[in-house]
Design goal:
TPR_rpt, TPR repeat, mainly alpha, Tetratricopeptide repeat protein 1, Serine Threonine Protein Phosphatase 5, Tetratricopeptide repeat, two-stranded antiparallel ribbon, phosphoprotein, TPR-like_helical_dom_sf, single chain
Length: 277
């Protein structure tokens, strides 16, 4: 297992403009983000390449938090929906909203520690608690919480639920490369190559240097084509059986009908043959 002392950058805590390389190196006091992938890979066959998006914004001065703003959800990953959260926020002052953001940031860090310390179930609960108070207008902050929760679910092999969280993150932040890449790999694991390829293509658009996305665009199309041909063969066989069943009372079968494709248009014509060979 990778060293438990990792930086929060592993969890996409990158909301400011990218810093220069020297500034980025200075801000890191622990091993690289790729060690997150080693932790997740130990629990699944996925390879999650989480490259750093940049440095975190400096935290605001600590403020007192309002612990009674949003109740905890009954389920570990049953966060308040956005409309519920907005209704609660109508009763809060700007100071209370700022305090909630501060507390959500701290909960995220606590969830990160639970993840690194191999307690993904507790991490899920903490990320959900953070989502229940993180301001609704904190688009990237909320996307990151969903992305982190997805990583925790992968540790528990809850792949379909992890896909849902990746989708929530991407809906909030369409350029969230890590969530797109993670969802692409989850789609592959769930035998959904079309969906996986679409995500890999989007990753490549956003980050042409992403090697997994490059490789997937070569590897997946033949797999998809082979699958489609197999489905087409199975469908034609089923249609043939159905046709024979319908034609049998008339003393006919599908062999009496010959399909011919026009090479110039690709369309088909059907010819009737009274006495098939």
């Amino acid at each position: 297992m990778a060293d438990k002392a990792h930086s929060d950058e592993e969890f996409h805590d990158a909301l400011s403009e990218p810093t220069t390389e020297s500034e980025s190196i200075k801000s890191r006091q622990t091993p690289s983000e790729e060690e997150l992938d080693e932790i997740v890979e130990k629990h699944s066959s996925l390879r999650l390449d989480d490259d750093a998006d940049g440095d975190s914004q400096e935290q605001e001065n600590e403020k007192d938090t309002n612990d009674d703003v949003a109740p905890k959800a009954d389920e570990p990953d049953a966060e308040l929906d956005i409309e519920q959260l907005r209704e609660l926020e109508k009763e809060l002052s700007p100071e209370q909203l700022a305090a909630n953001k501060e507390k959500a940031d701290k909960l995220k860090l606590e969830g990160n520690e639970m993840f690194k310390n191999d307690d993904p179930q507790r991490a899920i609960e903490i990320y959900t608690e953070a989502l229940n108070i993180c301001p609704s207008d904190g688009i990237k902050e909320r996307a990151i919480l969903f992305g982190n929760r997805a990583a925790s679910k992968i540790k528990l092999e809850a792949y379909k639920s992890a896909i849902d969280d990746c989708t929530k993150a991407i809906d909030l932040w369409p350029e969230y490369v890590r969530a797109l890449l993670r969802r692409a790999k989850l789609y592959e694991k769930e035998d959904k190559p079309d969906e996986a390829l679409a995500d890999y293509k989007r990753v490549y658009e956003l980050d042409p240097g992403q090697r997994d996305a490059q490789e997937a665009q070569i590897r997946l199309p033949p797999i998809i084509n082979e699958r489609n041909e197999k489905l087409k063969t199975e469908m034609m066989s089923s249609l043939k059986d159905l046709g024979n069943m319908i034609l049998k009372p008339f003393g006919l079968s599908t062999q009496n009908f010959q399909m011919q494709q026009d090479p110039s248009t690709g369309s088909y014509s059907i010819n009737f043959n009274q006495k098939p060979s």
